[in-house]
Amino acid sequence: MKRFTSIDTTRGLVMIIMALDHVRDFMHTGSMSDSPTNLQTTTPLLFFTRWITHLCAPTFVFLAGTSAYISVKRQNNLAESRRFLLTRGLWLLLLEITLINLALWFDIHFRLMLMEVISAIGLSFIVLSFMLRLPSRLTGVIGILIVFSHNLFQGIPLPSNHFAVFISSVLFYPNLIPLPAGHSFFSAYPLVPWLGIMLTGFSCGELFDLAPEKRKKIYLTGGVGILSLFIILRFVDIYGDPSLWKTQKSAMFTFLSFLNVTKYPPSLLFSLLFIGIAFLLLFLTENRENRFTKICSTYGRVPLFFFIAHLYVIHLTMFIMLYIQGFHSGDFLFGPFKNGRPEHGGGVNLAVIYLLWIAIVILFFPLCQWFGNYRKMHPENKFLRYI
Predict the structure, then answer these.
(1) Using CA of residue 369, residue 371, residue 377, residue 382, what is the dihedral sign?
(2) Among residues 90, 185, 228, 248, which is most buried (max CB within 10 A)?
(3) Among residues 332, 356, 358, which one has the least CA distance to residue 28?
(4) What is the pLDDT of residues 259-310, one digit of tens each?
(5) 346: phi > 0 → left, psi -120 to 50 → alpha, else beta; which?
(6) DSSP H or E run through 335
(7) Rounded to 5°, angle at Cα 45 from 364 and 277
(8) What's the CA gap between 158 and 281, in Å, rounded?
(9) In a 10 Å sphere around its CB, with 0-12 CB exposed, 13-18 middle and 19+ buried, how is residue 128 labelled?
């Protein structure tokens, strides 16, 4: 099966960036106390260390939709394509509530059930599987309407009925729901806003029916246009993000405020900013073969394998760090939103975070290369399509 360099390279690059956020989240000294995008306490370097990783989730979801279009067209079998998307969606949900939640919290009691980007992709695949009869451009129009309009619903109060609260949390609002026996459910990535991004990505799969040079021009025009729309809407600051930008103590921090858009759930301005950047990355990597694209695409060809495995490695590295710093097993705290870090102390500065990130990314290069080659050499193993 032919692969597209721009998709693999862009996806691989954002996965490398994603690993930085996870290393910071698990091991930075300040990750337990304050948000790196809190302009009252952050530094520009810490802000951008977190901000750049916002690129990851919308790019994953958008390219998942694009890849789904390419897969559907190649299969040319509606029933088989629907079955694959439905099965893959359910598989991703299962992985989220088992292996991924375990990797995040190392809590064998599963006291916190967290729905993040993998479950958002899984649920979106399930919805998309029932929309395959629609023309792809109509699917794209629906996606764009969702992206542009879902902020209108954010101000509506949550219903008081427990079932309604659960459904609205899964669909629209990030929300923490207490469950019996000390368990909790948190929908960090509600479906509808991310579904809009996936449906738009699915429609943009049509671009891969075009010649590379024509596709490249559309990436550039689209990326510049989307980012221009972001700048206009953000400057006007009437609609598109619940967090307004404000003049800060310096020009730099005012610029940070301008860029500090809302991810949970992804606002219109968040989506425009990072999908616009993703278009420019696709433009820069389209039909281009060099050492950089080969390195990035090694990770991008096996996204789910890298995603799950790197979480376990980073989490285990965190415990090694804590033991080196003099902590003992009795100091580790587990439970809802507790991943083993002691309540006070532990962690390393940002310079060490970057070194650890680079080391982990390098460690995974041969592993991703091996797994990608193994999957390519065993096309008869259909289970490998789901990893």
Answers:
(1) negative
(2) 185
(3) 356
(4) 999 999 999 999 999 999 999 999 999 988 899 999 999 999 999 999 999 9
(5) left
(6) strand 334-335
(7) 70
(8) 38
(9) buried
202 in Cβ contact with 66 (< 8 Å): yes
pLDDT tens digit sequence for 192-220: 999 999 999 999 999 999 999 999 999 99
Q: Is the Cβ–Cβ distance between 284 and 248 less than 8 Å?
A: no
CA R_g for the chain: 21
How far apart, in Å, are the Cα atoms of 205 and each of 3, 137, 200?
A: 13, 10, 9
Q: Does the pLDDT of residue 34 top 90, yes or no?
A: no
Low-confidence winner among 18-27, 340-349, 362-371 (lowest mean pLDDT):
340-349
Residue ranges per domain, the chain?
5-152+160-386
Say if residues 86 and 129 touch (Cβ distance below 8 Å). yes
Tokens of 296: 């990035």
Model pTM? 0.94
Q: 3-state DSSP helix/strand/coil percent for the chain, to nearest 5?
A: 70, 5, 25
- Is the preceding peptide bond at 265 cis, omega within 30 degrees of 0? yes
Give the DSSP per-residue string, 47-72: HHHHHGGGGHHHHHHHHHHHHHHHHH
Q: Is the dihedral of CA 55, 279, 376, 68 positive or negative?
A: positive
Q: Which SS3 state, helix, strand or coil, does residue 286 take?
A: coil
C-alpha span between 198 and 176 (Å, rounded):
24
207 neighbors 6 (Cβ within 8 angstroms)? no
- Model confidence at 158: pLDDT above 70: no
Amino acid letter for position 19? A
Run of H or E residues at 381:
none
Say if CB 118 and CB 104 are below 8 A apart: no
Q: Alpha helix (H) ranges present in 237-380? A: 251-259, 268-285, 291-300, 303-324, 350-377
Q: Nearest Cα to 202, choosing from 57, 63, 385, 5?
A: 63
Look at the block and give the residue holding tokens 């989307």. 226
Residue that has been written with the tokens 């690129």 in this structure: 55
Query: Distance (Å, rounded) from C-alpha 161 to C-alpha 166?
Result: 9
State how far the Cα of 105 lies from the Cα of 336, in Å rounded to an integer: 8
